[in-house]
Design goal:
Strand order of the largest sheet: 1-2-4-3-5-6-9-10
Number of helices: 12
Number of strands: 10
Distance between the termini: 58 Å
Shape: globular
Structural class: alpha/beta
CATH class: Alpha Beta
Helix content: 25-40%
Largest sheet: 8 strands, mixed
CATH architecture: 3-Layer(aba) Sandwich
CATH topology: Rossmann fold
Radius of gyration: 20 Å
CATH superfamily: Alpha/Beta hydrolase fold, catalytic domain
C-alpha cells in the first residue's frame, strides 16, 4: 500500500504503513511532526523557535535593526498551527528629555497574504518598506506552507485559506497595543493570496478594510487542458496527483539575465517547488469562477498590479475583474515584462505606487 501511494506524495512526507492517509490527520514534514502540539482550541503562546526562525529571514539584515518584531503560532479551526509574524516601526528607548518630543505615530496596518508555495519571510523586504513608511505589518504562512502545519502546498478547500486568514487577522489585532486598534487596515496579497484577499474582503463588513492591494491576483489562470477538462474527477480520485508545474524558474532566469535584482527560490528551503496538485488546481479554478461571477459584490477600494505578459496568472483576467467589480475606487497598473512575482522582481517600482496609493486613503 505504501509503495502504491508514495508517488503521490512530495519528498519528505511519511506514508502510514498499511493504510491510506487521512485528511483529518494531515501528514506533516518531519520537523513539524516531532514538535509537541498545543491543546486544541487554545491560542498558542509565542514560541522561542518561532521567533528564531523568523529573525533569520532571506535578507541580509537583522529584523530587530529596523522593526519591533514578534513571531508566534495560532491554532486554526482544524487544529493546525499557523505561523504568524508582525513588524512594527522601531521604538528605541529614549532619554528623559527626548520623551518630551512627539513620537512618530504609526499610520496604518498592512496584512500580507502570500501566494502558493511561498511563505511570509519571503516578504521581509516588502515589510521593511511599509515599516519605513510608518505602517505595522502582519503576515502569516498558509497551512502547508512555510512554518505552518499541514501537507506541503496542499489544501482540500480554498475556503480553508480564507478562514485561516480571517482567524489570523482577528487574533493579530487582539495582540496589538490598544493605541493601534483604530488604525486603518489594508490587505496586500499576491497571486493565490490575491484570490484569498478578494474572497475575504468581499464578504467582510464594509468598514473592515480601508483598501486591498493585489499583485498578479489569481482571478484567471493558465491551466493545462487536461486539468481543466478532468479537474473534478482528478480532485476526487487522486487529489495529490501532481498536474502542473508553475513557470517561476523560467521567469527568474530571464530576469537575472536582464540584470534585475530578483529573488532566488533555490536559496530558500521554505519555498515549495513541487507541482500544483489536482485538488489544489481544481480549487483554484472554482475560486476563479466565483470571483468573476460575484465581482459586482466587491466594493472595497482596490489597487491591482500585473505584468502584461505574466504566464502564471492572466493579466487580461485582472483587467476584466477590474472592470466588473462594484467598487467606485479602483486602480489598475500594468507593468512591462513577463514577471509574475512583482514584489520580488520589480519591488521598488511597485512598492512606490502602493505606498502612495495607500497613503492617499488614510
Amino acid at each position: 500500500m505504501e509503495a502504491a501511494l508514495s508517488w503521490l506524495f512530495p519528498a519528505g512526507h511519511r506514508v502510514p504503513s498499511g493504510r491510506a492517509p487521512s485528511f483529518t490527520q494531515p501528514l506533516l514534514p518531519p520537523s513539524v511532526a516531532t514538535r509537541p502540539q498545543p491543546p486544541p482550541g487554545v491560542l498558542a503562546c509565542p514560541l522561542p523557535q518561532a521567533r528564531s526562525h523568523a529573525r533569520h529571514a532571506t535578507v541580509g539584515w537583522r529584523v530587530d535593526d529596523w522593526a519591533d518584531h514578534n513571531a508566534y503560532y495560532v491554532l486554526n479551526s482544524r487544529g493546525q498551527r499557523i505561523f504568524v509574524q508582525t513588524w512594527r516601526p522601531h521604538r528605541p528607548r529614549r532619554a528623559f528629555w527626548q520623551r518630551l518630543l512627539p513620537r512618530r505615530k504609526e499610520r496604518g496596518i498592512i496584512y500580507i497574504i502570500h501566494g502558493l508555495n511561498d511563505h511570509s519571510n519571503k516578504y521581509t523586504r516588502v515589510a521593511k518598506a511599509w515599516v519605513d513608511a510608518g505602517y505595522v505589518v502582519i503576515a502569516h504562512d498558509f497551512h502547508g506552507h512555510g512554518r505552518s502545519d499541514g501537507y506541503r502546498a496542499y489544501t482540500s478547500s480554498m475556503q480553508n485559506y480564507v478562514d485561516d486568514a480571517r482567524h489570523t487577522i482577528e487574533h493579530a489585532k487582539q495582540r496589538l497595543p490598544r493605541r493601534l486598534n483604530g488604525l486603518p487596515s489594508f490587505i496586500l496579497a499576491h497571486s493565490l493570496g490575491g484570490a484569498v484577499a478578494i474572497h475575504l474582503a468581499r464578504d467582510a463588513p464594509h468598514s473592515t478594510f480601508r483598501g486591498v492591494m493585489l499583485t498578479a491576483p489569481a482571478v484567471r489562470v493558465y491551466p493545462k487542458p487536461i486539468l481543466k477538462l478532468f479537474a473534478p474527477l482528478l480532485a476526487t480520485l487522486a487529489p495529490l496527483l501532481p498536474v502542473q508545474r508553475l513557470k517561476f524558474d523560467r521567469e527568474r532566469r530571464r530576469a537575472r539575465k536582464a540584470g534585475e535584482d530578483c529573488y532566488n527560490v533555490r536559496d530558500d528551503p521554505l519555498v515549495v517547488r513541487s507541482p500544483v496538485r489536482a485538488r489544489v488546481g481544481y480549487e483554484v479554478l472554482k475560486s476563479c469562477e466565483k470571483i468573476m461571477s460575484e465581482a459586482e459584490r466587491f466594493r472595497v477600494p482596490v489597487f491591482v498590479a500585473h505584468s502584461r505578459e505574466d504566464r502564471v496568472t492572466n493579466a487580461k483576467g485582472t483587467i476584466d475583474f477590474h472592470d466588473r467589480i462594484g467598487s467606485g475606487d479602483k486602480t489598475v497598473r500594468l507593468y512591462d515584462g513577463s514577471v509574475h512575482d512583482l514584489l520580488a522582481e520589480k519591488r521598488d517600482m511597485v512598492m512606490d505606487d502602493m505606498v502612495q496609493w495607500a497613503s492617499s486613503r488614510l
